[in-house]
Amino acid sequence: MSTFTKASVRDAPVAGRRVLARVDFNVPLREGEVEDDTRIRAALPTIELLLERDAAIVLCSHLGRPEGRDPDLSLAPAAERLAELLGAEVSLAPGVVGEEISALAERLDPGQLMLLENTRFEPGETENDPRLARALAALADVYVNDAFAAAHRAHASTEGVAHDLPGYAGLLLEREVRELTAVRDDPEPPLAVLLGGAKVTDKIGTIDHFLETSNWILIGGAMCFSFFRAQGQPTGDSLVEPEGVDLARDALERARESECELRLPVDLVLGERFDAGADPRELDGTEVPDGWMGLDIGPRTAAAYSEAVADAGTVFWNGPMGAFELEPFAGGTRAVAEAVAAAPGRTVVGGGDSAAALTQFGLADEVDWLSTGGGASLELMEGRKLPGVEALVDASEVRA
User: Fold this and answer.
1) 3-class DSSP state for residue 108?
2) What are the φ/ψ torsions at residue 30 (nearest 5 degrees)?
3) What residue segments make up the domains of the chain, in order of their start?
4) 187-382 topology per CATH
5) Among 92, 93, 272, 304, which is most exposed with the fewest C-beta within 10 angstroms?
6) Residues 334-372: tens digit of each pLDDT
7) Where in the sequence numbering do the catalytic residues fall?
8) Domains 9-174 and 187-382 belong to one CATH topology
9) Which of 190, 211, 189 lies closest to 256, judged by CA?
10) H or E element that contains 157
11) What gap in Å lies between CA 266 and CA 246, rounded to an integer?
12) Contact by Cβ (8 Å): 37, 83
């Protein structure tokens, strides 16, 4: 596994001290309860380690994109679910910073936890306001970042605070970076990369990197229609990202000059509208007629992609193959998910919709690593620096 160059929470001096731990509790809610607690469970190892080492813990996280203080986006349900999972009391602070919050933090004893309210209730969070970062830092003695899914954002609670407190990587963040960079930099060949979703603009950096290192890049999802449009094919009413067409054309040209095989679907499943009640129609080919939209890869494509996955030494998958949330158009994503789950090689799946698909099909436990971060995993795969990681203390400084 790849080397991790940042200091770990394992090395942090936390006994008898207050620790500000940035976690990712950006979880789906339904009727005031946590609908999927995957991200809360992912934070448990770091929280439990801190508790074992007699730290007093101030947790912080964002939830959604509130405009001001939105009671529907309170972290209260997350606090309740965390308390159930830990079997311990988790108090919810009435805000993020301020005199009252500071007093509550100071009263925490070792082994106690407090979760701050949604950090995005504070406008300075997404602006990385240094005043908010300093106020957060004043709540604790040590900072731990375990929110990999937010590590690509330079926000006050993910990057700014690490300039005012010594920052360490949580166990989840450390494992995420190790697993993903191992695929990026040192995969067991051959390497198959499955990329889906809607936007070429979101994936073009990943495509560029893997054109140099992978054996196959297998394209699905609505982004394939930008490639078909770049080839001059009719796409009917399919979703096409205008900004993605030229990028797709350039990628196809680079693929012709590389040793990587960039594959596009050879058949599709169409619908007259984006609706679970739409009748699916298989198209043996990829030229979509007017009045129809491509909503899934077809069975021949799914079989070919599955075969490549079965032959791979390493598999990286990010993005569904179609509108898997609509049952008539879930077949391609289901087939690929089953192939990834059964693959003999090492399997790493980016977060976001890919993770949701694996969960929906009951296969989340069948891959070697399921990332919690969609955008963060892609940026890391591109070779970009993640602000929330870069701001942490270097491991060499701890060992010196």
Assistant:
1) coil
2) -140, 120
3) 9-174, 187-382
4) Rossmann fold (3.40.50)
5) 272
6) 999 999 999 999 999 997 889 889 999 999 999 999 999
7) 39, 199, 352, 375
8) yes
9) 211
10) none
11) 21
12) no
For the entire predicted model, the pTM comes to 0.92
Report the C-alpha gap between 24 and 123 in whole angstroms. 18
For the chain, give the number of residues: 400
Candidates 362, 269, 265, 344; CA nearest to 305 is 265
Angle at 36 between CA 158 and CA 8, to 5 degrees: 35
CA 133, CA 160: separation in Å to the nearest integer? 5
Secondary structure of residue 143 in the 3-state scheme: strand
Neighbours of 335 (CB within 10 A): 21
Distance CA 127, CA 114 (A): 24
Name the H helices within the chain. 38-52, 76-86, 99-106, 130-137, 171-185, 200-213, 224-230, 242-257, 299-311, 331-342, 353-360, 374-382, 387-390, 395-399
Nearest to 322 by CA among 367, 369, 357, 361: 357
Whole-angstrom distance, CA of residue 175 vs CA of residue 160 = 22
In 3-state terms, what secondary structure has residue 263? strand
The amino acid sitting at 282 is E
- Strands 56-60 and 281-283 come out as unpaired
Please state, in angstroms and as integers, the Cα–Cα distance from residue 269 to each residue in 307, 349, 374, following that order. 20, 24, 26
User: pLDDT for 133-180, tens place per residue?
Assistant: 999 999 999 999 999 999 999 999 999 999 999 999 999 999 999 999
